[in-house]
């Protein structure tokens, strides 16, 4: 079990011509030719235009896109988790926008084989029998477009921090600040490309999530446009700029890992 606590698989749900990868970092500016540098399952596939599409128009399906190699997040089972940063551009385009999708999640888990994971409200992470079990070793940041009362969701347009459970430890409605510093509603299910940053500070045990609206034109499918991960945020801003088109100031959500 100690090994499982040290090496984790990093992947996104639902959701290259250029793939840059080092031991603890990787960068996809497109998914053209990335079949050998991603581990895809269920209905996930790379489109001809280089987008990573992890579901389709059929109901109750899920897709997984894993970074193919495990990444070390701890030196010991009792030590602090290493700091990390990730950024990706995604679009959620449900068949019926007013009803939602359900959504997507960035996740870190001890295995790529999520046996029994269900779609819909479980986002391909868990199921009704293992939901809430500490033995899951699942950390996720969910982007949820459906209000599920059983999981105490705050709205049908929120981001949540999940630890081994679909009941979020912390959550916030998704919005952003316009150029005149006005807080604006940001719909996750409008089909517009959205850039998300997730930064974890291991020393402070604090996680930060930020969003930017990339461009006004929607994309007619749910997909991932680019993905960055690294355990040092030194170069993340430079890499993230390669994914940006036109964006507005970001809205940031903080979570203190000691709070519940």
Can you put this structure into words, describing what you see?
This protein is mainly beta and 260 residues long. 4% of the residues lie in helices and 37% in strands. It has helices at 2-6, 236-241; strands spanning 7-13, 19-22, 25-28, 39-42, 45-46, 52-53, 63-66, 71-72, 84-91, 103-109, 138-144, 158-163, 170-173, 175-177, 183-185, 194-201, 206-213, 223-230, 251-256. Strands 1, 4, 7, 8, 10, 11, 12 and 13 form an eight-stranded antiparallel beta sheet that branches. A seven-stranded antiparallel beta sheet has the order 2-3-18-9-16-17-19. The two termini are 25 Å apart.
Tell me the fraction of residues in β-strands, as a range: 35-45%
Radius of gyration: 17 Å
Q: Number of helical runs?
A: 2
Q: What characteristic shape results from the CA principal axes?
A: globular
Secondary structure layout:
Elements (H helix, E strand, L loop, with lengths): L1 H5 E7 L5 E4 L2 E4 L10 E4 L2 E2 L5 E2 L9 E4 L4 E2 L11 E8 L11 E7 L28 E7 L13 E6 L6 E4 L1 E3 L5 E3 L8 E8 L4 E8 L9 E8 L5 H6 L9 E6 L4
Antiparallel strand pairs: 1-7, 1-8, 1-10, 2-3, 3-18, 4-7, 5-6, 9-16, 9-18, 10-11, 11-12, 12-13, 14-15, 16-17, 17-19
